[in-house]
Structure to design on (380 residues):
């Protein structure tokens, strides 16, 4: 309870998977953090109906309240949630409250709120374990329209925090009537800004080479620098700890997205490289497919993760078989697409465009030197 005459304390921010990255490791510190998808679960609601959490999602941002702590703290948060329900809805978000035990919703509570009961506390314990939540305090998770975590905090004035945070979310973009669009997948928050900056610094500090392409010369497949097709500079990541961190962080975040969108469940990562397209050099990558040679035939999906979108102009991805639309994920976000799609990295016209690139290969074909993400895919 808040002492009389005092403002409620602000919530406590919780650890994120990519906090304080180092060149040696990017391994997540917790199993559930910003950028991860909230796990699915089944609990009864106020009508007694048992449904999966994902069935309750309606394509809106969501505030997920985890009501833990002593009885007074629980009662105070439940009452605050009931009072704020209409305002949360006006902000364009849904509200779901998970409470231990089988208590009914408060009198006069809005039917727009999902009041879920956790009779044995197993779901609340699962969230506490996965996100390193303090068990003695209530907590809040802010999810995007695709049930990915945007923020998570514990204790303090959770409803006040939620209303402020929701009001600060960027409004949805205008709706477009699309007749033709490339079958690509855009995934935000795969890496945070600090991790993106660390990867750019590795490119600067540890060196880079001219990017090569797979070509068939005199009947043999070779890697060669071929500026008529591609012009950029690449840094291959070879540090084992950093590779493992990238696999653990990115793998667990793209695996459920690929499964949901394309039914693609098992894969292994190809190499990871940091690339630079420099406007002063006139860098580009002409139209091509990523699986057109014998050595690349088992590539299934390409991953392009933008590291500094705000710092350059041009450089967008184009899929000309699917219209003139240009694709430009924000920093830390990635675009995934089937390697058979014709695509082009347009010339950068100002600044330098940095990306992290990899490919997802078919795990049925073992390839020396590649690193597996199969476990991450299966966890998703």
């Amino acid at each position: 309870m808040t002492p009389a005459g005092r403002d409620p304390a602000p919530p406590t921010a919780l650890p994120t998977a990519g906090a304080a990255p180092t060149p040696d490791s990017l391994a997540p510190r917790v199993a559930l953090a910003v950028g991860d998808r909230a796990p699915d679960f089944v609990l009864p609601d106020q009508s007694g109906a048992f449904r999966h959490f994902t069935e309750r999602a309606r394509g809106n941002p969501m505030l997920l309240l985890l009501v833990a702590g002593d009885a007074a703290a629980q009662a105070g948060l439940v009452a605050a949630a009931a009072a704020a329900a209409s305002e949360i809805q006006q902000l364009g978000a849904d509200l779901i409250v998970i409470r231990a035990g089988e208590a009914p919703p408060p009198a006069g509570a809005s039917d727009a709120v999902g009041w879920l009961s956790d009779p044995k506390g197993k779901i609340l314990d699962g969230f506490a374990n996965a996100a390193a939540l303090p068990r003695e305090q209530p907590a809040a998770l802010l999810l995007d329209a695709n049930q990915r975590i945007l923020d998570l905090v514990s204790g303090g004035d959770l409803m006040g925090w939620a209303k402020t945070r929701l009001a600060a979310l960027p409004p949805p973009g205008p709706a477009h009537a699309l007749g033709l669009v490339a079958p690509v997948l855009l995934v935000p928050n795969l890496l945070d800004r600090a991790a993106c900056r660390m990867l750019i610094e590795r490119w600067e500090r540890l060196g880079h080479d001219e990017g090569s392409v797979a070509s068939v010369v005199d009947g043999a497949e070779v890697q060669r620098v071929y500026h008529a097709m591609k012009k950029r500079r690449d840094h291959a990541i070879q540090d084992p700890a950093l590779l493992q961190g990238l696999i653990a962080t990115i793998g667990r975040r793209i695996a459920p997205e690929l499964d949901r969108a394309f039914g693609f469940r098992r894969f292994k990562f190809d190499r990871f490289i940091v690339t630079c397209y420099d406007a002063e050099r006139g860098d580009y990558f002409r139209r091509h497919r990523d699986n057109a040679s014998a050595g690349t035939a088992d590539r299934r999906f390409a991953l392009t993760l933008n590291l500094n979108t705000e710092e350059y102009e041009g450089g967008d991805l184009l899929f000309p078989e699917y219209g003139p639309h240009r694709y430009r994920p924000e920093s830390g976000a990635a675009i995934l697409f089937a390697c058979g799609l014709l695509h082009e990295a347009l010339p950068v016209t100002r600044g330098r465009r940095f990306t992290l690139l990899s490919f997802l290969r078919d795990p049925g074909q073992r390839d020396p030197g590649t690193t597996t993400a199969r476990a991450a895919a299966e966890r998703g």
Summary: The first helix runs from residue 53 to 56. The radius of gyration is 23 Å. The mean pLDDT is 88.
